[in-house]
Every structure is written in C-alpha cells, then in structure tokens.
User: What shape does this take?
Amino acid sequence: MKYKRILLKLSGESLMGKQHYGIDTNKLNEYALQIKKAVESGIQIGIVIGGGNIFRGLTGTGKGYDRVKGDYMGMLATVINSLALQSALENIEQPARVMTAIPMEPVGERFSKQKSIASIEHGEVIIFSFGTGNPYFTTDTAAALRAVEIEADILLKGTRVDGVYSDNPEKDKTAVKFDDISFDEVIERELKVMDLTAITLCKENNLSILVFNMDIPGNLIKILSGEKIGTIVG
Assistant: This one.
C-alpha cells in the first residue's frame, strides 16, 4: 500500500445520500465497508466527519443563532455522525472508537494523541468528533489538526466530486480538473478545497491533501493502492 496511516475527512452532507437531511443508512454502511477493507489491507485510519447533514453552525447565524452557540450545535452534530459510523463499523465487526475534543464520557473518550496512535496501530478505527472543541473553527481544520497530531502520511478528503476544479463543476461545465496543485495556488485562486486555516496548517506541516469522490465504491482502496484518483494538494 502507498500509505500506512491516513486521516479520512468525510462531509456530513455526504452521509445524507439521496435524502435532504439526516443519515442515509445505505450510504453509511457503504462507507463502513470501504473503511473496513482499508483496515484489512493494513492501513491505519483516523476519521473526522462534518455535521452539515444535521446542523451547520455558520449557516445558523444567519437564522438568528449566536455564532458560538451555533458552532457548538454543529460540533454536537459531528458527534451524532461519529456514533452512527462507529455503530456501522462495529456491526461489520470492525473495531472503532469515538474520541471527543472535550470531555463527553460516556458518549466518547477524551482525545489523546498517545491513545489514538496506540489504538490505530492495533487495528481500531478512531473517529475524532466535536471538531477542535472550539467555536470559529471548521471540521476541515479539525481534520488537518488531528492528521498532524496522529502523524498521518496524508489527509484524504472524501467528497461528492472527483477532485479539485478551477471552478464548481456542478455550475460551470468548462471547469478544469487539476491532477495536482500547490497549496499556494489553492490559496491564490481561492479554491474551496478546505478552509484557509486547514490549508495553512497542512502547508506548514508538509501534509498533502488528496481530494477524491468517496461515493464511488472502491475508490478508497484504489487510492491506498497507489492508483491516481482525485487531486493531490501539496
């Protein structure tokens, strides 16, 4: 395999599948199977999931919610998604553990770098929830932070598109897909790969990001095997 240890970032919206809200169990189970196959191939995996399928803090501020409270509501949504994924993994006999950025026992265990690394080295999937534990930071930033902390080889961002484009391919049919692109160019072009804080954190720690379509079954294993899928940002 090309990588030994990865941090997989999943969007909350991707868990909706064809629904308009909540969790599509078929999509959830599909992701769980891909993750289990990766672990069985020898990959150590940490995961961060967004909460946009349930509540998005920043959007909530436009509806009258206080920004800080809205962000905490969004972070709580990530815990719900994390528990759902943990359950899906355990149902197919893949050990998984939820770690939270703040004390939330018995919902999850408080994040610890040492415990996280020890667990993934023994074949457990660790799901990091509640973002960074602070308002004003996105789950993209949480993913970058946890990836650096667990010393991941790469940050994989699973999305509904097959890479990074010059513009939104769903709106602009002339948008061009990049096979690879530098951090500086992403920042200069203001491409919506991840938020600026996450991009900067990855750049400063020489951690590449690979953006790919997680909704295509088998893509995760193909990437880990070295196939050129998606876009490398580095």
